[in-house]
# Entry
Amino acid sequence: MTNLRHIFRELREALSGNEQDYTSGSLNRAILLLSVPMVLETLMESVFAVVDVYFVARLGSSAVATVGLTESLITLVYAVAIGLSMGVTAMVARRIGEKDREGAAEAASQALGVSALASIPIMIGGLFFAPQILGIMGADEWSLTHGASYTRWMLGGNIVIVLIFVLNAVFRGAGDAVIAMRVLWLANGINVLLDPMLITGWGPFPEMGIRGAAIATNVGRGVGVLYQLYILFFGSGRVHVSLFQLRLKASVMWSLIRVSIGGVGQFLIATASWVGLMRIMAMFGSDALAGYTIAVRIAMFSILPAWGMSNAAATLAGQNLGAKQPDRAEKSVWRCGWYTMGFLGIVGLLFFLNAETLVRIFTSDPAVVPIGAEALRIFSYGYLVYAWGLVIVQAFNGAGDTFTPTWINFFAFWMLELPLAYLLAKPLGFGYRGPVIAVVVAESVMTIIAIIIFRRGKWKTREL
# Structure
């Protein structure tokens, strides 16, 4: 009973938002205090993906395929957002570890400007060329006629995606993981409420169909960004930005961009590979594409919380390197890896045993369910490996070494995954199973390479 009370007390502390020093004291406690709100944060980010598909699936397989194709394009936005987030997390965590809060605030202020500039080209492309983009991706006639509005809204409003990621990276790097969690819960809560209202026309709202899903998502994220800005300028977090710090500072911006370039490149490689996989899958029709999209959404629902645990490793690595404690930084990474592997191992087993049941939550289409279930089972084979890949890569990023994962991704995804996916799908006759198998193989190879390089320890000497 005493141990149970202690666990609940620690959980309350993890969700309280009280200031902690993660460079000293119990490492297990530091991981718990960081990972609980980070897991809850990323769990809600995964809800974004699942909720849209759940309601859009009622519109048919072509609507789900449209969401899948658009999300494969939105992953390019995620590449920019997450790449910038890596640079921001590394710089803010290092400054906090050095007890330099003004330096952390400067990094946060410059991140706002970089984020706004990065979103403009994607916004223009989405607003003016949505149908053409879907056509290039192999969309069917329904998607080109009715689904383009969804793509236009999602790409046109990409600035809220970039900002919600980057500003939450500020809070995570500073150790304010509870603030980042609250932002995602607020944004997702609004999205969950608006999705059925705007898609199906509940109450006073008009029936907007697939376009309503995009509007709901943008509104939810937009409100989340406004809350982030309020906390950053007027709140009581560890990082407080004043108005005079909004002036552009070339040296800080360049440091941020330099660290972020590797992160952006890292995810551009991974997400461009993802677009390629979707294009290969589109050759097998809307049913295969819809089944694959649902399986991916379910898989991401579990992997994103695990990514939250890996974000704890990034923060601990960055702050402890800033505090000149490289051994504690390394130890925290291995510890996070074992915990993440245990979590994903259980999830992978549950997914393997209940794949068809999970897919049926989203669709009852007899042509889509078997494809989605089979894809989900194949994905589950690699869950133990995914855990270590997530943690080790995030540790590199938290240390500011974003270029090492970039080269690893280039080899694993472009040199291995894409050629293997096409080879299995067409010449070897595996069909729609080919891209799914290729994902598991590529992720496994990537993880093995990352662990080997991590053990060499050069990431400990990275200067920011």
About this structure: The CA atoms of residues 254 and 397 lie 17 Å apart. Residues 24-461 form one domain. The chain has one domain: 24-461.
